[in-house]
Design brief:
The structure holds two protein chains of two kinds. By secondary structure, chain A is α/β, with parallel strands linked by helices. Chain A contains 16 helices and twelve strands. Chain B is built from 15 helices and twelve strands. The chains are: A alpha/beta, B alpha/beta.
C-alpha cells in the first residue's frame, strides 16, 4: 500500500475512471472512412460537446452538424453546432434540438455519411413526442419513470415507444445515408440500442413491451400515453429494416474500460483491485448493504479477497422514491450512505461512490466519501443518518460532515463508479 | 479441480442440496456439546435458557451430559421438542406475553436458588430478547414497553437501543449470571446476529455488561426518549449492583459463518471453488438478488471477480416489502430466488438454492427453493407476474422445486448458494 491517504487514493481512482471514459482520448481509434459525399454530425447526451470537439479535431474531411448537450459548461467546438437543453426533465429547448437533428439528416444521399455521437442523458435531451402526444405527456412519462425505480434499460423501452425520434427513427430519417454511431455507454451490458434510447440504433422491442413495463412498475401515466402505446404510431422500425443495412454502432467508452483503468492504477499502488461487476443494478440502499457486507467480510476475515484490496463496481443503481417525504441526493450518494451504515465502526474501510458524469442525480455533487466513522460524525453534526436513508436525504447527511465529492460536469458519462478500499 | 464441462454434468440439484445440507448440519445443536462440556459439579446441574432453538439445544445438551440435570427453557410457540429432564415453556415472540413473563420469573428464581456447588448451564439463541423478559426493580412492564416504543421510533442504532434495554431489564446484559452467582455459569450460544457477539445474541442474559447510568442517560437525551422520574431513579439503583464477576465460560456452538464454512468445505470436496460473500447480507430480497446477478454475469462474461466453477455463498437476513397487490405466498428466501431466476434466466451456467435454516421460509411449509437453468426449465411464462404479487412459493411449487425440511428448531438465518459452472 502507498503513502497516499485513503481519500486521495480513492479520488485518484475516480479520476482515472473518468479519464478512461473521455472521448477526447478514445474516439480517434473508432472512426469510419470519410465518404464520397457530405459528413453530417449529429448527437445528444452528456458527452455530446466533448465528443463533437474530439471528432472535429481528428476528422480528415469537411464536416458540419449539430449536437445537443445539457445546460452548464460545455466543451467548445469550431464546426459542429452545440445546442443545450434540460436534463433530466426535458424542456422545449430539447424539443427544438430534436427537430434540428431530424432536419440535419433530411435530404441526404447514399454517398453521404452521418456520424451520430450518442451518450447517456440523450434520452432526456431529445424529447420528441410520438403520434399526437404533447411535450407535457412526454415529460409526465419521464417523471413517472424517474420515480419508478425501474432499471435504465426498462425505462428506455418506454421512452422509445412514446418518442418520434428514438428507437432508430433518427437513423431511419437519415436514409439512404449511411449512419455510424459512436457511443459512450452508460447502460448495463453496453447494448448500443439502449444508450439514450437508441435514436440511431433500432431494437426489437414492441409497444406491448412498454405497456408491460408500465404495468410492472405501476407507473401512473396520462390516458393519452396509454392510448398512444396501443396505436400503430408507437411501433418503431425493426433492426432488420433494410434502411439500416449499411449502418454500424461502436462503443468508444464504457463502464468496463473505466473500471479496468482504475484497476490498473490500484495495482500500480500495491492494492489488489477486484472488479465485482460493470453492471450492478438494483435499489441503491440494497446494493449498498451488499457491498458493505462484502467489505466487512474482507475486513474481518481477509476473505474472499486479501487485504489491501479495493472493490470496484459499475452500473446504475436506482432510488425508488415512494410516497413519503423526499430529501436531496442522487443514487450514488444514497448508495454510499447505505454503505456507511454497513461499515459503521470499522476501521480501515474507506469508500467512494460517484457518477462519472460529475453530477449525482440533480445535485451539485458527483458523489461522496464514507468510512467507518461517517455515521458517528453525522450524528455529532446533528443529522440522523438512519432517518436520512428513509427520507432519501443522503446529500444533506454528507454535506453536514463536508464529505461530498464535487467535480462539476466531466464531459462524459459511463454511469456509476464505486470503490471500497479495505486495508 | 474439475473442469467447467465436467461440473456441467454434475447434478446441480444434488450439489445444491449437499451444500445446504452441510450448512444446516452445522446449524443444529445436536452433537455440538460433546467436546465443550464442563466438569460435573458436586451439586446440581441447572439448565436455563431462551430462544427459538432453546428446546432443541436442551435436548442436545441432555444427550451429551449423560447425568442428571434439571431446569427450564423458554421457546417460541411451536418450537418444542421432547426432552427428558429440562422443562420447556412455549411463549410469544416477538411481542412478549404473560406466559413468557412468568416463565422468566421462574428462571430468575431457579438461578437465584443455585448454590456454590451447583452448575448453571445457559442456552441462548435468537429470539431470547423477547422470550426472556423482566423489568428491573422499580420499573413496570408498561414503563419498559413505552421506552421500547420510543426507541423504535427514534431511529437509534441497535447498539444504543440494546444498551438502554439492558439498563431497564432484570435479566439482560448478564444480570441472569449475576443472580446465579456464586454458581459457575457456562453459556452456549447459537447466533443469528451479524458479528456473533455473545453479548448481543438474545441481549446476553449471562454475559456481564458494563452498566453506566451516564451512558444510558446520554442515549436517552440524544434520542429524546422521555422517562418518568421513578424510572430514571431506577437507573442509579442498579449501577452498583453486586460486585460479583463469576467465572463465566461462553461457547458459541453455531453461527451463520460456521454454516457457510461447512458449505464451503463441502463445495471444495466437489471440486467447486467456494466464495463466501458475507454472513450478514441484508436488504430487500429482490434487490439483493439483482445485485448478486450483476456479479454472476460478470463471472460468466469476463471471469471476474471469480472463475467458474464456483459457488457464491452468503448468509444474513433479507427483507420483503409486500407489493400493493401482494396476494401470493412465499418467504424472503423464495422471493430472493425468484428475483435471481428472473435476472439470470438466459444463463444456463447458473443454478441456485436459497433457504431459511430454521426450515420455514416466512410462514410456509418449505425451507426455500432451488433452480437449475441448465435443465432447460424456464419456468412459467409469466415469472415476473409471480414476483409482482409476492407469489414465489407457488412459482417454485408448480415446478416441483421447493425445498422442504420441516422445522429444524434451530436458526442461523438465511442460507444462499449460487453455482456458476
Amino acid at each position: 500500500m502507498t503513502d497516499d491517504t485513503p481519500r486521495d487514493f480513492l479520488a485518484a481512482l475516480f479520476r482515472r475512471a473518468v479519464r478512461a471514459a473521455d472521448p477526447r482520448d478514445t474516439i480517434a481509434a473508432h472512426l469510419p472512412d470519410p465518404p464520397r459525399g457530405r459528413t453530417v454530425v449529429i448527437g445528444a447526451g452528456k458527452a455530446a460537446s466533448r465528443m463533437a470537439a474530439a471528432l472535429e479535431s481528428v476528422w480528415p474531411a469537411p464536416l458540419d452538424g449539430v449536437v445537443i448537450d445539457r445546460y452548464g459548461p460545455i466543451t467548445p467546438t469550431k464546426k459542429i453546432k452545440v445546442l443545450q437543453a434540460s436534463h433530466p426533465v426535458p424542456d422545449v429547448a430539447g424539443l427544438a434540438g430534436a427537430k434540428a437533428l431530424l432536419a440535419a439528416v433530411g435530404g441526404l444521399t447514399a454517398d453521404d455519411l452521418v456520424i451520430a455521437l450518442i451518450s447517456g442523458g440523450g434520452s432526456a435531451l431529445l424529447p420528441m413526442p410520438g403520434g399526437s402526444l404533447t411535450l407535457a405527456n412526454e415529460i409526465a412519462v419521464n417523471e413517472a419513470l424517474l420515480r419508478s425505480g425501474a432499471p435504465i434499460a426498462a425505462m428506455n423501452v418506454v421512452r422509445k415507444h412514446v418518442s418520434g425520434i428514438k428507437g432508430g427513427r433518427l437513423a431511419q430519417a437519415a436514409a439512404p445515408a449511411r449512419v455510424v454511431s459512436l457511443l459512450v455507454s452508460d447502460v448495463a451490458g453496453d447494448n448500443p440500442a439502449l444508450v439514450a434510447s437508441g435514436p440511431t440504433v433500432p431494437s426489437a422491442t414492441t409497444p406491448a413491451d412498454a405497456l408491460a413495463i408500465i404495468d410492472d412498475y405501476r407507473m401512473k401515466l396520462p390516458e393519452a400515453v396509454i392510448a398512444h402505446l396501443r396505436s400503430p404510431a408507437a411501433i418503431a422500425p425493426m433492426p432488420d429494416d433494410p434502411a439500416f443495412a449499411q449502418n454500424r454502432a461502436v462503443v468508444v467508452a464504457s463502464a468496463r474500460t473505466s473500471l479496468y483503468a482504475a484497476a490498473d492504477f490500484a495495482r500500480s499502488r500495491g492494492v489488489t483491485p477486484v472488479v465485482l461487476s460493470d453492471a450492478i443494478e438494483g435499489g441503491s440502499q440494497s446494493v449498498g448493504s451488499m457491498h458493505a457486507a462484502i467489505a466487512r467480510e474482507v475486513a474481518r476475515f481477509d476473505q474472499p479477497f486479501s487485504k489491501p484490496v479495493v472493490l470496484l463496481s459499475g452500473g446504475e443503481t436506482t432510488v425508488a422514491l415512494g410516497d413519503g417525504p423526499v430529501g436531496r441526493g442522487g443514487p450514488n450518494t444514497e448508495f454510499l450512505l447505505s454503505v456507511a451504515r454497513g461499515i459503521a465502526g470499522l476501521s480501515g474501510v474507506h469508500a467512494l461512490a460517484a457518477d462519472t458524469d460529475g453530477i449525482d442525480g440533480s445535485e451539485d455533487n458527483a458523489g461522496a466519501f464514507a468510512d467507518g466513522q461517517s455515521f458517528a460524525r453525522m450524528r455529532m453534526a446533528g443529522i440522523d443518518p438512519q432517518k436520512a436513508l428513509h427520507t432519501h436525504d443522503a446529500w444533506t447527511a454528507f454535506a453536514a460532515i463536508d464529505d461530498l465529492l464535487v467535480t462539476g460536469p466531466t464531459g462524459t458519462n459511463v454511469n456509476d463508479f464505486r470503490a471500497i478500499l479495505i486495508r | 479441480m474439475l473442469a467447467a464441462d465436467e461440473i456441467g454434468n454434475l447434478d446441480a440439484e444434488q450439489v445444491l442440496k449437499r451444500l445446504f445440507g452441510a450448512g444446516l448440519e452445522a446449524a443444529l445443536p445436536d452433537g455440538k456439546f460433546d467436546h465443550l462440556l464442563p466438569e460435573k459439579p458436586k451439586g446440581r446441574t441447572i439448565v436455563l435458557g431462551a430462544g427459538k432453538a432453546s428446546a432443541r439445544m436442551a435436548r442436545a445438551f441432555e444427550d451429551a451430559w449423560q447425568a442428571p440435570c434439571e431446569g427450564l427453557v423458554i421457546t417460541r410457540y411451536g418450537h418444542s421438542v421432547p426432552t427428558r429432564h429440562v422443562r420447556i415453556v412455549e411463549a410469544s415472540h416477538p411481542v412478549p406475553d404473560e406466559t413468557g413473563l412468568s416463565a422468566t420469573r421462574e428462571i430468575v428464581e431457579l438461578a437465584r436458588g443455585a448454590g456454590p456447588d451447583d452448575l448453571v448451564i445457559v442456552l441462548i439463541s435468537g429470539g431470547a430478547s423477547s422470550l426472556l423478559t423482566m423489568p428491573a426493580e422499580g420499573v413496570s412492564l408498561a414503563d419498559k414497553q413505552d421506552i421500547t416504543r420510543q426507541l423504535l421510533r427514534s431511529g437509534a442504532p441497535i447498539g444504543a437501543m440494546n444498551t438502554v434495554r439492558k439498563a431497564f431489564s432484570a435479566v439482560k446484559g448478564g444480570k441472569l449470571a449475576i443472580v446465579a452467582a456464586p454458581a459457575k455459569v457456562v453459556t452456549y450460544i447459537i447466533s443469528d446476529v451479524p458479528g456473533d457477539d455473545p453479548a448481543i445474541v438474545g441481549s446476553g442474559p449471562s454475559i456481564i455488561a458494563r452498566n453506566d447510568p451516564h451512558e444510558v442517560r446520554a442515549i436517552l437525551a440524544r434520542f429524546r426518549i422521555k422517562v418518568p422520574a421513578h424510572v430514571d431513579r431506577a437507573l442509579d439503583a442498579h449501577t452498583g449492583g453486586p460486585d460479583i464477576r463469576p467465572e463465566n465460560i461462553v461457547h458459541t456452538i453455531a453461527t451463520p459463518r460456521m454454516s457457510l464454512d461447512a458449505a464451503s468445505r463441502e463445495a471444495e470436496r466437489m471440486g467447486i471453488t467456494p466464495i463466501i460473500l458475507g454472513d450478514a447480507i441484508e436488504g430487500e430480497a429482490r434487490e439483493v438478488a439483482v445485485a448478486m446477478a450483476g456479479m454472476v454475469r460478470s463471472i460468466i462474461q469476463y471471469k471476474t471477480p471469480f472463475v467458474a466453477p464456483c459457488v457464491l455463498l452468503s448468509g444474513g437476513e433479507t427483507t420483503v416489502t409486500l407489493r400493493p397487490e401482494a396476494a401470493g405466498r412465499g418467504g424472503r428466501n423464495t422471493e430472493f430466488l425468484l428475483a435471481l431466476f428472473l435476472a439470470l434466466k438466459s444463463h444456463r451456467e447458473v443454478a441456485a438454492i436459497a433457504c431459511d435454516t430454521d426450515g420455514i421460509d416466512g410462514t410456509e411449509n418449505n425451507a426455500g427453493a432451488w433452480f437449475d437453468l441448465a435443465s432447460g426449465w424456464t419456468g412459467e411464462a409469466d415469472a415476473a407476474a409471480f414476483l409482482d404479487r409476492n407469489d414465489a412459493y407457488n412459482f417454485f411449487k408448480q415446478a416441483d422445486r421447493l425445498v422442504t425440511t420441516g422445522p429444524t428448531y434451530t436458526n442461523v438465518n438465511d442460507f444462499r448458494a449460487i453455482l456458476v459452472r
